[in-house]
Amino acid sequence: MQIPQSESPLQRVESRMRQLVGAGQGQAGDIAAEHLGAGGGRVRAKLALAASQALGLPQDAAVAVAAACELLHNASLVHDDLQDRDALRRGRMAVWQEHGDAAAICVGDLLLSAAYASLAACGYATPALLLRVHERVGAVIRGQSSDLSLRGRSDTSLARYEEVAAGKSGPLLSLPVELALLLADEGDHLTSAVVAGERFAVGYQMTDDLDDVQRDALNEELNVVAVLAARGERAPLQVARELALGHFREARIAALTLPRGAGQLLADYARQRSDALQLLREPA
Amino acid sequence: MQIPQSESPLQRVESRMRQLVGAGQGQAGDIAAEHLGAGGGRVRAKLALAASQALGLPQDAAVAVAAACELLHNASLVHDDLQDRDALRRGRMAVWQEHGDAAAICVGDLLLSAAYASLAACGYATPALLLRVHERVGAVIRGQSSDLSLRGRSDTSLARYEEVAAGKSGPLLSLPVELALLLADEGDHLTSAVVAGERFAVGYQMTDDLDDVQRDALNEELNVVAVLAARGERAPLQVARELALGHFREARIAALTLPRGAGQLLADYARQRSDALQLLREPA
Questions:
Q1: Which of A45, A223, A225, B210 gives a 20 to 30 Å CA spacing to A208?
Q2: Residue A2 falls inside a structural domain
Q3: What's the sign of the alpha-carbon dihedral A184, A187, A190, A192?
Q4: Which residues, in sequence order, are CB contacts of A156 under 8 Å at separation 6+?
């Protein structure tokens, strides 16, 4: 397919994802394309494109890495929604809810496979990227498994809660930056990217929990407010908010230590989240 | 980990698979290792090793490709058993039956991811292998989706039955040989490998169906005997047997056209299956 010159990098990511899932070539590919078409902030694609541009990488590699990370994220959403029996995603029915459990398993598998295929455009660096992606996918799977096993347990420690939140979402938030660093031969900085992703993930999860205190209690899902209340905090909402702000701050600091501004967008996202949470704290 | 010199290539494949799924690093990795440890014929690993040896490839690449194909196969087993609600696998409880649906989804994802990671050892050829693997994984997913959508429908044509059987199992049977051909710069012969895998898969599925006529009828699963009976065949068992023999013969012919004996083991497997079926046909 000829790609018009005027396409933006983000549009190229969209085209690449549709092509890799095989839209128009059978049910699973069509459902995958439909799921991708339902929107989403494309946070991971944007992080990859911004880091790649900051590090001076060729656009083809940047698009490949961005599509890979976004496909991985969407694979995890499709399978997580099924595991968690979350019926809605992006204001529509989740894939399992609309097309059935078996279709959701197939679609998630296809998205995961497509993510790896996207890395083929990274030439000689492909093997190193493959290993990194697998390591991080393994971490996400361990995080999701731990989360599932802690359902309905109110005796979870704060440390364990943070470990699970960091493990579930952190790896795919830092991976876009990690892969750009590897491509730019800046692999020494991977740890800072990992820390930034994990802190962001924990801050984000706590913010999310603050919105879902009632619902999570009903569904016996892990929630930081319940964790804090169970250890005797008298103002668990306030403490959770302060903790989240601290995590966003640490995420920003770690992201800003990355070379050549590779973590600038991640730092900006952390600041936006932090500002929104500050506004909530201020009296009207 | 130091690998002892005395380890056979097949033992190296086992070690590599265990290492890539992260045995000992969490629940999903442990279950994946347990599933792999339950046995299985390692047909796809053996096909990869034999084709690689025939084509003079380095052992490291052969082991990487063999582990990738075997991991893909096992990923598909774990997810298929869940989709089909098959309770037993290799004489043990299937993963979903023993550990639950959510764990089975995680374990299948981990095995799929590990398969791609295994290809990192293939150096400059890695990008081409990635694309090929994704194409074939897509074909398997389309085959599995079609199979699921045809459940309980007795009006399936023989052509459609064969298409589904070829699509579901053919790609992962030929993939070991296909990847070895790509590594040996013999990509012109991929089509013969694909045909051999598909014919073998259809013959194998028909043989399997002959053993499961009653059970499949109860479970409303697609079975060639029912397909033949529905179109008015008076001796559907005999016809199915003849068709299966024809498919094994075609598989053998296609495999034997591959360069430098790369398809010899696949041809041998087809002959073994064919001989076993012939014996069944002969009067005692």
A1: A45
A2: no
A3: negative
A4: A150, A222, A227, A230
Q: Is residue A1 part of a domain?
A: no
Verify whether the Cβ–Cβ distance A137 to B25 is below 8 Å: no
Inter-chain residue contact A25 with B114, CB threshold 8 Å: no
Chain B partners within 8 Å of A123 (Cβ): 127
Tokens, residue B257: 């056209």
In the numeric block, which tokens belong to residue A53?
């541009």
Q: In this predicted complex, what is the ipTM?
A: 0.93
Half-sphere exposure (CA, 13 Å, Cβ side) for B62? 20
How far is residue B237 CA from its own chain's centroid? 25
pLDDT digits (tens, 9 = 90+) for B147-192: 777 776 767 889 999 998 999 899 999 999 999 999 999 999 999 9
Range of the domain at B170: 9-281
From the list B112, B121, B148, which residue is nearest A109 (CB)? B112
Cβ pair A201, A165 in contact under 8 A = yes
The answer to whether residue B21 is domain-embedded is yes
Contacts of B149 in chain A (CB under 8 A): 27
Count of the separate structural domains present in chain B:
1
Side-chain half-sphere CA neighbours of B245 within 13 A: 13
Q: Which residues pair with B92 in a beta bridge?
A: B89
In a domain, A276, yes or no: yes
Q: Nearest CA of chain B to the CA of A90: how many Å?
A: 22
From the candidates A126, A144, A149, A182, which should be mutated to test the interface with B, based on the most B CB atoms within 10 A?
A126
The rounded radius of gyration (Å) of the Cα atoms in chain A is 19
Residue A43 carries which side chain, given as an amino acid letter?
A: V
Average pLDDT, chain B: 92
CATH number, domain of A256, equals 1.10.600.10
